[in-house]
Design a protein that fits this description.
alpha/beta; six-stranded mixed β-sheet; 13 strands; 36% helix; elongated
Length: 314
């Protein structure tokens, strides 16, 4: 199912408590169609936000909407249109994979026959077709994660909420999971909210980004725009005078790394500083620039910057 929404969800001034503990503090954001990374350290409030969007937690004095519905009023309707992959282990040890996925389809309101048919399709989609008749408790961690993904696909949702889908996976399992997420977003047109603390997972799969810290939204918008705010990176090669060029760029406020035995300089520009600074410095010093290439700022640098500004020790 392809969604007809540009904005698939939003919340305004959302607070969420666990007893006296305030887990979400005045959260306001919009979720765009496409793949959104919900990024934050452990305890940032990511899982709490997902559960609130699903209607699993009550909402007081706040406006929350998902796919045009209020999850506090219509939680079952929301869950029929949304696939949810929780972080924790959820499987029945004595069930085969196809039985478990079909059971999840029935919980979403499908008939037994339709759920069974879709279970086979979903397991094929996550590359578990040949293992579908094996008991899930005999699966590896990566296979159990893919069973959870199949279970949240079985009822044909247009939106997936994935909570730490690569948690505990080895490199091969992580690569497979990220590949499946990219395929679901790009080839099948599903909207996805990927909740994680792993920056590389977001950088490889997501166009949109929400950054949470201690229950507060620090950023909500396009991922590339967030990365650009950390400045851009350049590779600079001069004919001669590599060390002189490095010193002059540092004097101009740039961060410069000199590669041992390599005449190429790695230069990080501060936000608002244009790459023309390289030509200006070179001309002033009488140096000849042989190569100048640029790339967007890294997600790691942008995330470290915003956490430092927030006062988080990340």
């Amino acid at each position: 199912m392809i969604l007809e929404f540009d904005v698939i969800g939003h919340c305004n001034n959302l607070n969420q408590h666990y007893g006296a503990f305030l887990a979400l503090k005045g959260v306001s954001l919009e979720l765009q169609a496409g793949c959104t990374g919900l990024l934050g350290n452990n305890g940032a409030g990511k899982s709490t936000l997902l559960k609130t969007l699903l209607g699993q937690l009550p909402v007081q004095k706040a406006k929350v909407e998902l796919l045009g519905m209020d999850p506090a009023v219509e939680p079952l309707k929301v869950r029929q249109r949304v696939g949810y992959m929780p972080e924790r282990e959820v499987y029945f040890p004595d069930m085969t994979a196809v039985e478990q996925v079909a059971f999840c389809g029935q919980l979403s309101g499908m008939s037994r026959s339709d759920a069974l048919s879709r279970a086979h399709e979903s397991l094929d989609a996550v590359s578990l077709g040949e293992a579908r008749y094996r008991a899930v408790d005999g699966y590896s961690t990566g296979m159990r994660q893919r069973v959870k993904l199949a279970a949240c696909l079985v009822h044909g949702p247009g939106l997936l909420l994935l909570d730490e889908p690569t948690s505990g996976l080895d490199p091969e399992g992580r690569e497979m999971m990220l590949g499946l997420i990219r395929d679901l977003a790009q080839d099948r047109g599903l909207s996805i909210v990927l909740s994680t603390h792993i920056l590389q997972d977001v950088e490889r799969t997501c166009d949109w980004l929400v950054v949470l810290a201690e229950g507060q939204v620090l950023y909500s918008g396009a991922r590339k725009q967030f990365q650009a705010a950390s400045g851009s990176r350049l590779q600079v090669k001069v004919k001669t005078g590599t060390r002189t060029m490095a010193d002059l760029l540092r004097d101009a406020g740039c961060k410069v790394d000199v590669r041992p035995g390599d005449p190429v300089l790695d230069v990080e520009l501060e936000p608002g500083v244009e790459r023309d600074i390289v030509w200006t410095v070179a001309k002033r010093a009488g140096l000849q620039v042989r190569r100048l290439t640029s790339s967007e700022g890294s997600l790691d640098a942008a995330y470290a910057r915003i956490m430092q500004e927030h006062g988080d020790g990340a």
